[in-house]
Amino acid sequence: MKNNTMLSKVFGWMFIGLLLTFITAYYLASNEYTFYKIFSGGTYFILALIEIGLVIFLSARVQKMQPTTAKIVFMLYSIVSGLTFSSIFIVYELSSIIILFLAAAILFGIFACIGNFTKLDLSRFGTYLLMALVALVICIIINLFLGNSTFDIVINFVCLLVFIGFTAYDIQKIKRLYGSSDNENIAILGALELYLDFINIFISLLNLFGKSND
């Protein structure tokens, strides 16, 4: 019952984060002048750096923050992510975004359930998932220079598998963390980790199957 209560809080805050991200992204994409002002200048890179800084700061400090501060920082991060995420509404058809969002939600839900109900200890897979993630980042950087479309497909497929794995792993990790501490901010930390898992699953599906706007 205790874990179920915590997971309800985690998914509640994850939903709030995703909602803020997609509302912000859609609003910015609908505001043509502001959108091109951001994406045609250096503002985008500043926002991207702020986004990375916020997620690192929140991940490292969340359990030492006041609960209200942690929630505000998480919501701020979600909004900034929406600003950098808004390009998907320009690049891809809205119908494609909706269908693949639902597909991402189904995949995420299946593996979240696996992580919640399996008796298998998934902590042993954490090191392998982290190694795969580091390898993915290196491959993405390399392909920025190569621009190989086949390599890009492989990267996105592996990315999809890695974050599906992280979804199950993180669910079990959250339950374990809450079992050893009653820190209220664990719900925010869990929401952040699952938010990142979901977003990466969704982006991977978009890159693999998304239908581009003409």
Report on the structure:
The chain is mainly alpha-helical and 214 residues long. It is built from nine helices and no strands. Helix 8 (149-180) packs antiparallel against helix 9. The protein is globular and about 45 Å long. The protein starts with a helix and ends in a 5-residue tail after the last helix.
**Unreliable runs:** none
How would you spell out the order of helices and strands?
Answer: HHHHHHHHH
Query: What's the rounded overall pLDDT mean?
Result: 87
For the termini, the CA-CA separation is 50 Å
Counting DSSP H or I runs of 4 or more residues, the number of helices is: 9
Main beta-sheet strand count, sense and barrel state? none
- Structural class, from secondary structure content? mainly alpha
Q: Beta-strand percentage?
A: under 5%
Share of helix, binned: over 70%
Overall strand count: 0
Q: Note the overall shape.
A: globular
Rg is 17 Å
Oligomeric description of these chains: single chain
Summarize the structure.
With 214 residues, this protein is mainly α.
Describe this protein with a few key phrases:
single chain; 214 residues; 9 helices; globular
How would you summarize the topology of this molecule?
Elements: H1 2-30, H2 32-39, H3 43-61, H4 67-85, H5 88-91, H6 94-117, H7 126-146, H8 149-180, H9 186-209
Helix pairs in contact: 1-4, 1-8, 1-9, 3-4, 6-8, 6-9, 7-8, 8-9
